[in-house]
Each structure stands twice: as structure tokens, then as C-alpha cells.
Input
Amino acid sequence: MFRIFRRFNRSLNNDVVRADLHSTLLDLKPENPFDLKMEALKKLIDWTKWSVTVGGETKDYYSSRTIRTKFLLQFLDRNEDLGTYFFGTISDLMKRGKATRLLYITGLTDHNGFFSEIADRMILRILPQTFTEKDLSEICRYLFDSPEDIVWIEQYAINVLEPFIQTAKKFNVSFDFLKDDLEDALIILGSHISSLGVTRQIRRHLDYADLSDLSFIKLSMAINRRDTPDQILKELTQCRINILNVRNKLEEVGVSVQLIYTIEKIESYLNRTEYLLHLRFN
Output
């Protein structure tokens, strides 16, 4: 086990002290506190960010991170006890309901006002992270806290996705609950869109006979009925048209900061709904 680790270390920059994978992975034992296990995951992710030198050539940040991540998966595959600790933690995070908020709110806001959003961001910078609910959105915010994390996940992580899934299956990690959480996320997004779309400041700029005729209500109902993707996308498109009509009328009636904020929220929720639909059915 340690021979594998030492051989990998020799291929790296010997001037840098390497993280002790063995002791870090031991912190992921099931009997350890949840906060300690999250700290260990953070250490492992930080370890993958260190540069790699192969044949005298230092790889760039993203290539180094991919190489280290692949090595970590091989290390876990060959050391079953440590692999059991790591993927046992991952399995715990994959249980029903853990990823719902991650899917529907990451990168968006769930607050009702501009100033409450500012207050929330200030508090997050002051107070320490907590993981009492084991919510994946908060955990990922803690684990992936830099712009480089986002770029690597979006553009490079695909290279390690298949090895990760195959190694996870060896340790009986099930990702089936992600499908259920994704459907729950769509339902929540639909309810948010309908709630915002029927506010007075939106309705007063739209022409409709009955409240049930509004596309925002119809979209939520289509999601709840689990209509076909084409039917849901049809209602979503109509929502976009209505929002565009509201924007156009702002030139006539004047601009309201709160109204603009509401429009931006609805548009962000519509974008996320469309993305999750493609993810769910493709």
C-alpha cells in the first residue's frame, strides 16, 4: 500500500511535502464525527490541487488535478479498507433528500429580497460552516470554494467521472437517489416559479382571464403531473415570453428595483428548470 504511494510521490515535485493520504482517509471512519469527515474530504480535494511533475515537466493546474484524482481512485481501489471509509462517506451523502437543494438552488438565491440576499452573503463570510443537516449544497460550498474548482468540474472532471463511478460501484455506492432528488428539485423550482409569477407586480403587466391561465401556474402543474419533457418545455417557453412582455412594458411604466429582482429570479429558475429537464431525460 505505502509502496504505491511512495512510487507516485517520486513522480511528483519532491520539494513539496505531500499530504498523508492514509491518515487523512482514516478520518473517514464511520464512527468519526461528521465534521471531521468533511474536513478530511476537504484535505483530499486540496491534495488533488497540488502540481504534478512528470519527466521534468510540471503539469498545469487542471492536468495535475486530473492526474492526482485518478491516482486517488486507484489508491482507493487497491486499498479496500480505506476505500470503504471513503465511499462509505460518499454513500451517506447520496441518500434520499441530500442532493435536492444542491440541484435546485446552487448558484441561485432562495431569498425573497435584495437586502436579505446581501445579509445572507455577509453572514456566510463571518460564521463558520455547519453540516448538521448533511445538505450537499452546503457541503459542496465548503469543499469547492474557488473559481478554479468550477472550471475543473465543468471542463475536466468528465475525464475522471467514469473511473469514479466504476470504483464507487465496487464499494456498493448507489446513485439512484439522485434521480428522485432531481424530480423533487423540479417540483420545488416549479412552485417557486408559480409563486413569483402570480405576484401582483408581475400580474399587473400581463393579460389573462383566470389565474389558472398564467403560464407560471401551468408550468408548475405540468411538472407535478410529470408531463412529457416537450409539454413541460412548451409551458416553460410561454413563461419566457410572458417575462419578456413584462420587461418590454417596463419602458412604459418605469423601472422598479424589486420588480427587476423578481424577473431575474424567475429567469434564473426557468434556466435551472430547463437544465434539470435535460439532465433528467437525457
Q: What stands out?
A: The radius of gyration is 23 Å. Confidence is low (pLDDT under 50) at residues 1-8, 10-19. The chain has 15 helices and two strands. Residues 180-281 form one domain.
